[in-house]
Write a structure and sequence with these properties.
- The structure is a single chain.
- The chain is an alpha/beta fold.
- It has a single domain, classed as Response regulator (Rossmann fold, 3-Layer(aba) Sandwich), CATH 3.40.50.2300.
- It has five helices and five strands; from the N terminus they run βαβαβαβαβα.
- Strands 2-1-3-4-5 form a five-stranded parallel beta sheet, with helices on both faces.
Length: 131
């Protein structure tokens, strides 16, 4: 397992904000700008945590989460996936439940709260050490 955080997101503003936050605590962030690129990157990078934007241009993000859970080998299946809301405000009704049902381990609503992002990533980093 690497110390890399993979963020699957196509929105440039979200990418910049999360990059600044993650790199600000000394972690490495790799960005994939589509679901397909994200799936391939997960295999190649073996990240410690995956952040998954819910508004992807090429596939349903819930399908991406299900695919990650179904297709990753045993060594990658336990990678925590944190859904990051695509909507503004508190997210869409039922969005958190759908993300968890698709295989995400946590859900962060918009607007992104940097402190909550750090806390969530750090919590799951300690869990991913045991994969």
């Amino acid at each position: 397992m690497s110390g890399i955080i993979l963020y699957i997101e196509h929105n440039e503003e979200n990418l910049l904000l999360v990059r600044k936050a993650i790199e600000g605590i000394g972690l490495t962030l790799f960005c994939a700008r589509s679901g397909e690129e994200g799936l391939a990157s997960a295999w190649r990078l073996r990240p410690a945590v995956i952040l998954l934007g819910l508004n992807l241009p090429d596939m349903d993000a819930y399908q991406a989460a299900r695919t990650l859970r179904r297709q990753l080998d045993e060594g990658l299946r336990c990678i925590p996936i944190i859904a990051v809301s695509a909507g503004s405000g508190a997210g869409q009704p039922g969005e958190a439940d759908r993300a968890i049902a698709a295989g995400c381990d946590a859900y962060l609503p918009q607007p992104i709260n940097i402190n909550r992002l750090w806390e969530t990533v750090e919590t799951f980093l300690s869990v991913s050490d045991f994969c």
